[in-house]
Amino acid sequence: MTRPDPDTLSLLASRPSLRMDVQDGLLFEDVPLHLIAERLGTPCWITGAGTLRRRTRNLHHAFVQAGLDVALHYAMKANDHLATLTVLREEGCGADVVSGGEFLRAVHAGIDPAHIVFSGVGKTNAELTLALRHGIGQINIESVEELRRLSSVAQHLDLTARVVLRVNPDIDAGTHDKISTGRAGDKFGIDWERVPAIYAEAAALPGIEPIGLATHIGSQILSPAPFKAAYARVAEMVRTLRAQGLSVETVDCGGGLGIRYRDELAPPPSALAGAIRETLGDLDVRLAIEPGRWLAAPAGVLLTSVIDTKHQPEGVPNFLILDAAMNDLARPSLYGSWHGIVPLSPERAHADLVPQTVVGPVCESSDVFATARPLPALQPGDVVAILDSGAYGAVMSSTYNSRPFAAQAMVENGQWQQIRARQPVDALWTGEMLPDWLETQ
After folding, report:
1. What confidence tens digit (pLDDT) does each residue in 91-127 have?
2. Hey, which of 213-217, 229-233, 314-318, 324-328 has the most confident mean pLDDT?
3. Coil, strand, or helix at residue 274?
4. Same domain for 385 and 347?
5. Is residue 76 a part of any domain in this protein?
6. How far is 116 from 138, CA to CA, in rounded Å?
7. pLDDT > 90: percent of the chain
8. Residue 218 has what pLDDT?
C-alpha cells in the first residue's frame, strides 16, 4: 500500500527553521523567502547559517552526552560554498575532502590543513603532493597501490604522510544502491582480509606513518544497526592489529547518518553516538566522523517559480512546470529522491490539494521533481521552495541546456545576503575558443 505524502503543515512541523507566516508566507530562519525571490529571481538557492550551527551543536552535544570526544570533519562534497565552510569552521569543524580543489577551497575558507582528511579512491600524485606540502592531518588510503604511490611521493618530498586505511567491512547499509559504499564489490575501501598485511606494509614503508583505520558504509542510513555492525568489525580489526604489535591510534567512523526527507524515522545523533560508544568506546583511540548530508541538507532550500501548467486528460495528473530543473537539483532524476515542495504563499499553502507532476524545462524526460504529488493548484508566477536541498544540491549543478548557475543567498537571525550572483548567460561561453580554420562572425 502506497503511503500518503505529507502535506505542507506536516512538512513544516518537523523543520524548526521553517514556518508559515499568515502575512509574509514561508519564512526560513525568520526571513520571508518571497523577498529573496523578488530581489534575486529564481531559481535561487538559500542556505540557513543558523540551521548549520544548530545541527553542528546538536551533533557535538550528542557525543559529549555519550562521554565521547569525537572530531567533526565536514564532508564538504555535500555543500562546498565558502560561506557554508566558514560557518562550520566557526563551529569547530574540520573538513573531509575528496579532491585537490576541495582541499584548496577548505584552506581558502580558513580551515587548518591539520584538521583536514583526504578521502577518495583516485587521488593523483599532484593532489597528494599538494596535501603533503600543506601539512594535511590525515590521508585515507583506499588501496595498497595508492599506499605505495604515496610512499614514493612522500620520499621525494622528504615528508611523512599520516595515513589511515579505509577498510571495507562488507556491511550492507540498506540504503540506495548508488550511495552504498561499504559492501564487497563497492569501489571504496580495502578488502577486509587484506587489511592486516597492508597495515604491516604501511608501517614498514618509508615516508608513511599509519595511525589507524577508517570506514564509511554509505549515505542516508536510517538505522543504527549497520553502523554498529561496521564499527564492531573495525574494533575487531583494531584488536587484531594491536595483537600483531602494530600501533592503532585513530578510528575514523565516516558519515552517512540519514535525515527525514519525506516521513522517514531518521535516527537522532544520539543513536550514532550510542553505536560508537558501544563498539569503539573502550579502545583508547581518537575518534572522528565525517558528517555531510546530516548537517547540510536541512539547511538549504531551492526557490523556483511556476512557468506554466499543462493540463492532461481526466484522471491523469496535470504537469506543473518550474523554472528550476535537473541541472539545478539533480537528486530526483539521479536517485529518484523525494523532496518536499512548499508554496511560499500562505493562501496557496492552505488550499485544496490536487495530484500534479512537477517538472523542469530541461529537454530530458527524467527532468521530474515529483510524480502525482498532492499540491495546491498553483499558477504561473507562484514561487515554491524545494526543501532539504542543502546537500548535493547546488554543488552538483551543471549548465546543461545552457542554463546558467542559479543565484545563492544565506539567511541567519532574520537577515539575508546574496552569496553568489546568478551566472550571466554570456559567461557560459567565456573561455571557449575556435580553432584557427573556423571563421568568426
Report:
1. 999 999 999 999 999 999 999 999 999 999 999 999 9
2. 324-328
3. helix
4. yes
5. yes
6. 7
7. 91
8. 84
Those residues with Cβ within 8 angstroms of residue 166's Cβ, 6 or more apart along the chain or in another chain: 119, 140, 141, 142, 188, 189, 190, 213, 214, 215, 216, 252
| Choice among 44, 93, 253, 363 that is catalytic | 363
CB 418 within 8 A of CB 409: yes
Nearest to 316 by CA among 285, 357, 278, 350: 357
- Whether the link from the prior residue into 355 is cis, omega within 30° of 0, is no
Distance from chain centroid for Cα 286: 24
Annotated binding site for pyridoxal 5'-phosphate: 256, 290-293, 392
Identify the residue whose cell numbers are 563498539.
279
Residue 316, Cβ density class (10 Å: 0-12 exposed, 13-18 middle, ≥19 buried): exposed
* Structural domain contains residue 439: no
Q: What is the mean pLDDT of the chain?
A: 94
- Tally the domains of the chain: 2
* 156 and 276 fall within a common domain: yes
190 and 207 housed in the same domain: yes
Report whether 160 contacts 208 (CB < 8 A): yes
CA 409 to chain centre: 18
User: By residue range, what is the domain housing residue 212?
Assistant: 49-296
- For the entire predicted model, the pTM comes to 0.94
Residue 363 designated active-site: yes
Pick out the residues of the known binding site: 256, 290-293, 331, 335, 364, 392
Asked which of 246, 272, 296 is the last residue of a domain, the reply is 296
